[in-house]
Specification:
This protein has 226 residues and is mostly helical. The chain is 64% helix and 0% strand. The protein has a domain of 137 residues: Tetracycline Repressor, domain 2 (Orthogonal Bundle).
């Protein structure tokens, strides 16, 4: 049989042959693989889910009574996934506390940038903290853990919070807006009153607006010390 001419050949010389079915009736279309979320994004989402689950567990049962298995069950995850991100239950608690303190630092920085008297900055700082706690369950758990029993990182975290407030108090004293005696107790009392209000509201419920309750608390302290 004589060979086919170029014109009779089903494919052009010099080109790769087309992918066809055995009967050469039509081109096979290979569907593209479904796009997957990047691994880093999936890891971030898994970590966030674990933190939210731990926040719920710690808020309901407390730090000491919550086990890693409880967190795994609450997150509907696996031990392997939890231990991939966190070495222990304490590591998870530390992450929640850090989230709270980092958010507080952001509120404090925003407060410092406002051109208002120092005593008003105190009220604005706690108002912003109340809004954070009302909206962010992870930050709320971090706050509660700062007074949690059996957690070594809790006392230093609470002292760091008090120190943030103390600087505002000291500025108000220097500006003559608060008496010098306020420096000995006001910052600690404000922080203790804040966390007490959060715990009472979570246990008993609150018919009013949470931020308004905190405003009332802060204003009561500031008026008594002014």
């Amino acid at each position: 049989m004589e060979g086919l001419t170029t014109a009779e050949c089903p494919q052009t010389a010099g080109k790769e042959p087309a992918l066809t079915d055995p009967d050469d009736r039509h081109h096979l279309i290979v569907p593209p693989e479904p796009r997957q979320r990047p691994r880093q994004q999936r890891a971030h989402e898994t970590k966030a889910k674990i933190l939210k689950a731990a926040a719920r567990s710690f808020s309901i049962d407390g730090y000491a009574a919550t086990s890693t298995n409880d967190i795994v069950a609450e997150a509907a995850s696996t031990k392997g996934a939890v231990y991939f991100h966190f070495d222990s239950k304490e590591t998870i608690a530390r992450e929640l506390i850090n989230h709270w303190l980092t958010a507080l630092g952001g509120i404090r920085q925003s407060t410092d940038e406002s051109a208002i008297p120092a005593i008003e900055k105190l009220a604005v700082f706690f108002n912003g903290s109340a809004t954070l706690i009302a909206d962010d369950a992870v930050a709320r758990a971090g706050l509660r853990l700062t007074t949690g029993a059996g957690l070594d990182t809790a006392p230093p975290a609470f002292r760091e919070w008090v120190e943030l407030v103390s600087r505002l108090v000291d500025t108000a004293i220097a500006d003559g807006q608060l008496p010098a005696s306020a420096a000995q107790r006001l910052a600690a009392n404000l922080c203790a009153g804040f966390i007490g209000a959060v715990q009472v509201i979570q246990v008993l419920g609150d018919p009013g607006d949470f931020t308004s309750r905190i405003d009332d608390l802060v204003n009561a302290y500031l008026i008594s010390d002014a």
